[in-house]
Amino acid sequence: MAGDTILELKNVAAHYGRIQALKGISLSVREGEVVSIIGANGAGKSTTLMTICGIVRASEGAVHYAGQDITRVNADKLPRMGLCQVPEGRRIFPRLSVAENLDMGAFFRRRKRRIRADMEMVYEYFPRLRERRSQAGGTLSGGEQQMLAIGRALMSRPKVLLLDEPSLGLAPIIVKQIFDIVQTINQEQGVTILLVEQNANLALQASNRGYVLETGKVVMADDAASLLDNPDIRKAYLGE
Amino acid sequence: MDNAFTFFAQQMLNGLTLGGLYALIALGYTMVYGIIQLINFAHGEFFAAGGYMGVILLSYMAGAGYMDTHPWLCIGFSLVLSMLYCAMLAMAVEKVAYKPLRHSSRLSVLLSALGMSIFLQNALMLTQGVYDKAYPGGIFGAPFEIGGVIVNYMQLLILALTAGLLVALNFLVFKTRVGRAMRATAQDKVMSALVGINSNRVISLTFAIGAGLAAAAGIMVGFYYGSVRFEMGFVPGIKAFAAAVLGGIGNITGAMIGGFIIGMVEIMAAAYIPYGGEYKDVCAFIILIAVLYFRPTGIMGENVDDTRV
Fold first, then answer.
1. B30-80, pLDDT tens digit by residue?
2. Cβ separation B199–A105 shorter than 8 A
3. What is the pLDDT of residue A145?
4. pTM of the predicted model as reported, rounded to 2 decimal places
5. What percent of chain A has pLDDT over 90?
6. How far apart are CA A90 and CA A198, in angstroms?
7. Is residue A101 within 8 Å of residue A92, measured between CB atoms?
8. Nearest CA to CA, how far is B109 from chain A (Å)?
9. 10 Å Cβ neighbour count for B75?
């Protein structure tokens, strides 16, 4: 099922001022996979995604995507290369309408008809968004904002989708809906997904493989099923 | 017609003209603030630079005789060229004085802006001299009268041009792709980058548009008052800043409304308050202080924020 490696981090380090957030992260994602990064608060999960996207600059190491070194590529060039992030906290544009927010996802695309077709597709995935399309993004509920954030990312027709804490602050039933959609996106559209989650159980169940991060380092990497069975993991991250 | 009414109508017209000019300048403050939260104290200098570029071009064309044969073409040409010049000047100022400080404290950038203002004003003085430069006159013909109100063609041109520019700006910001990029960048720079917007380019463009509008105001002021002076950017700049704050800083519609209110209040104060003419400059600042005291978010700020950049 999984194809060639599409995203690879080689010994990536990153700093916030003098604080080192990532201490040499290496990981890889193959085409078509769902891979999750789990770990406690402050382990460096979000920083890893922000470093991949070039928002945080890697101070050491390299990020390769689709055969290219993107370590020094500006963040705004990546969406058109098919690498797209749904960041932590959704970051909906609060004063743009739902439809405008979706449009922003397709910002770099030119073909209006295809953009409209994709917007239709997003509305099929999330009918709630269609009902609220002319409402300001900032007025949506947390779950709706998460749907909008994912929808906006889909509007860029990503090959690889980086998802940061999609379950954060949402009711369990909404979380289930979101994860169902994520799996649909992976299976129907073949979008590769790198998922960051604090909810390790949920994440690993939806994934092929997982990486465990602790204080800026990868401490374990395995198939999701094996991680779920691992007694240490169960104790540390699955609340047993 | 009633005398008091004609007098009032006359003041309305004057207030509207002046207000339009303030609105054009205020937009630059508010757009830049909306996008990088900087009060660009050098903004008034773009207005002055526009006025000077206008007088230089117009004098040259007048000397060559084109002003007599094609006055409107000359005005249009110098207007467009001055706007472009100031747009480029503003982009250069942003690159040199603000961009390197993008991640510094807001105070550093503010000081850099003040420094830039002093620099630009002195550069204008040193290159263009300390004396007033006169705009070519006699283009617009004699004023005419409607129901006792004296209207001159210059005022009509200012009103029409102001209205045109405001409509064009609204269209650009709220109806185009570039405008969406500007609004998105103002709301969340990180997310804008994540959807593929080059925020440096958007910031540059915002400075350019603001300065272009100020340049247009500079030329019109040159025509209206007949001359320009190197320090002309200072007082109107601060009044326009007051207008932007009054309207709700960061809000485009607010800056337009604020500009018209400040212009109108100033004219009305001069007309109706005894010795008001001597105190008219104080009005803008009284309004500024009152707004900061009673409603710091301004007319359109925060509560009705869907028209923010």
1. 999 999 999 999 999 999 999 999 999 999 999 888 888 888 899 999 999
2. no
3. 96
4. 0.90
5. 88
6. 16
7. yes
8. 20
9. 23
Q: Which of B188, B196, B308 lies at the smallest CB-CB distance from A76? A: B196
Determine contact: B175 vs chain A, CB below 8 A.
no
When comparing pLDDT for B307 and B56, which is higher? B56
In this structure, what token pair is assigned to residue A214? 């602790």
Q: How far is CA B228 from the centre of its chain?
A: 15
A103, with CB counted inside 10 A (0-12, 13-18, 19+), is buried
* Tokens, residue B293: 């005291």
Instruction: Please compute, for residue A75, the number of CA atoms within 13 A of its CA located in the half-sphere on the CB side.
Output: 22
What confidence category does residue B302 fall into, taking pLDDT thresholds of 50, 70 and 90?
low
Query: pLDDT band for position B305 (50/70/90)?
Result: very low
Please give the structure tokens belonging to residue B96.
Answer: 């040199």
Closest to B135 measured CA to CA, from B215, B232, B222, B18: B222
Delimit the domains of chain A by residue range: 5-237
Q: How many CB atoms lie within 10 A of CB B214?
A: 33
Say yes or no: A139 contacts chain B, CB-CB below 8 A. no
The verdict on B104 touching A (C-beta cutoff 8 Å) is: no
Which domains, ranges and CATH numbers included, belong to chain B? Answer: 13-307 (1.10.3470)
Q: What mean pLDDT value characterizes chain A?
A: 93
Written as six digits, the tokens of A184 are 């649909």
Q: Is the pLDDT of residue B271 over 80?
A: yes
Chain A nearest-CA residue for B103 = A17
Separation between Cα atoms, residue B179 and residue B297, nearest integer Å: 23
Query: Cβ–Cβ contacts within 10 Å for residue B156, how many?
Result: 14
Say if B110 is an interface residue toward chain A (CB within 8 Å): no
- Within 40-99 of B, beta carbons closer than 8 Å to A belong to none
Chain A residues whose beta carbon lies within 8 Å of the beta carbon of residue B192: 76, 104
Model confidence band, residue B1 (pLDDT cutoffs 50, 70, 90): low
CATH architecture under which domain A5-237 falls: 3-Layer(aba) Sandwich (3.40)
Q: Which residues of B touch A74 (CB under 8 A)?
A: 193, 198
Q: Name the strands in the sheet holding A83-86, side by side, starting at the edge strand that comes first in the sequence.
A: A83-86, A160-164, A192-197, A34-39, A209-214, A217-223
H helices present in B94-176, as ranges: 106-128, 153-175
Q: Crossing angle of helices B234-247/B276-294, nearest 10°? A: 40
Chain A residue closest to B201 (CA)?
A76
pLDDT exceeds 60 at position B168: yes
B132-146 pLDDT, tens per residue?
999 987 777 788 888
Q: Write down the residue that tokens 């997982």 correspond to.
A: A210
Enclosing H/E stretch for A30 = strand A19-30
Would you give the distance in Å from CA A210 to the centre of its chain?
14
